[in-house]
Amino acid sequence: MIILGWVVVIGLPLVVFVGAILWPERTPSERSGDGIRPRIEADNGWRYGGW
Question: What is the pTM of this model?
Fold first, then answer.
């Protein structure tokens, strides 16, 4: 029973830590390259007389 307790005390935080490091975070679509490009092009058009 003591060994099971130590496995939980050490193993569970270790699994959470490794999962937080290795699990990829999803990038929101507005922060991806395809989402940023239209904003940059619109901003450049506004600055240089495109609007």
Answer: 0.47
